[in-house]
Amino acid sequence: MSEKSLKNKVVIITGGSGGIGSAIVNKLSNYRASVVSVYNRNHPDEQSDENIIHVKANLTKSEDWDRLLAFTLNKYGKIDVLINCAGFLEPGDFLLRQEDQLRKMIDINFTSVISGIQKTLMIMKKQGFGHIINIGSLGGIVPMPYSSIYSATKFALRGFTFSLAEELKGTGTTISLITPGSVITKMLDYEALGDNSAISFVSKPISPAKVAGAVLRVIHKPRIEFIIPRSQSIPSKLLVFSPKIFSSLYKILHRIGISEKRKYLNRYCSFTLAKGALR
Known about the structure:
The protein is an alpha/beta fold and 279 residues long. It has one domain (10-278): Rossmann fold. Helices cover 46% and strands 15% of the residues. Helix 1 (19-30) packs across helix 6, helix 2 runs parallel beside helix 3 and helix 3 packs parallel to helix 4. The radius of gyration is 18 Å and the shape is globular.
């Protein structure tokens, strides 16, 4: 892909201050896209270049979506790509989760995403072009015991994306799903605090830069789903071919995950983390 290939493209990225989000922001900015990076709690630490604008918004609020989209249109006159990267995880026993924790995961990971997509697609329909990219998770293919709500939101996002893709055929707009395995972020650090999330460590975690690279490839060549690492594509789908298969293998996967998690802890974790982890 040439350096000029994203010049004059206007891209909104939610969760722009997170590990994956900031990697995508920087990658697309390097390719000269005009990037609107959306954050909620934490303003990005790094100094931005001229191609990046940071916007604070709580996208669980419909009015903040309206404000974000209006700002982008007033600034640039169009929206080429919306990348939904914001995510939240609160792992643990389902019966011990408080109602506000459940609602927060559902709202951030799914409800606010589909609300924003609907609003954005109305704009893209008028334009006659546009591309929505959702950042999912292998946890939307393979069940994640002790992260059941997070996994449910990613299952929902995957089903929603595939369903909407059929509705959008012939409209000039497209929708894609990036499905990464575990990614080296604060969210994964937070999962490493407890043994119950060991399944997240069965496969070797990848860097946020690899996710950003996948996003760049999907912008260049749209496809309905891009699973990374590719080595996890077939095994993850085979694993859930039948609930009995997953159930029979879960204890083995859990033991492998515990072992691999120890390696991750030794290599990456500092544990300066607040309760709950944004991606």
